[in-house]
Specification:
Length: 117
């Protein structure tokens, strides 16, 4: 369960969501020549748009157990360049989230060290 004022928990949930999106994008590239394969994606705006609600609750209400959505209306072939570009953007988001988590851990260490002195 995510706590509204829990930056570490929120960052961890964001990292999980970014990871799920990366899996979906990789699946698209891997199945680009599979007949009748439908493109998969994870839309961050669906989950982060109403940030006042806990992210976990939004995920459960909107998507059920999996945040990966399948575009059933799409009949176009998968554009590998687009998928790779989206994977690169996703990697940047993960790097930002990782740096945020590192910063939070550093802050916790500082507080602990100040308490021990």
């Amino acid at each position: 369960m995510i706590i509204p004022h829990d930056p570490m928990g929120n960052t961890l949930k964001a990292m999980d969501l970014i990871t799920e999106r990366h899996k979906a994008l990789a699946s698209n590239v891997a199945n680009m020549n599979t007949p009748n394969y439908r493109r998969k994606d994870v839309s961050f705006s669906q989950y982060l748009g109403a940030y006042s609600d806990p992210l976990e609750t939004n995920l459960a209400h909107k998507m059920g157990p999996s945040p990966i959505s399948v575009d059933e209306s799409s009949t176009e072939r998968i554009d590998v360049a687009r998928e790779l570009s989206e994977m690169q953007k996703n990697s940047v988001l993960f790097t930002i989230a990782t740096r945020r988590m590192t910063s939070l851990i550093t802050q916790m260490r500082t507080v602990i060290n100040m308490g021990n002195s």
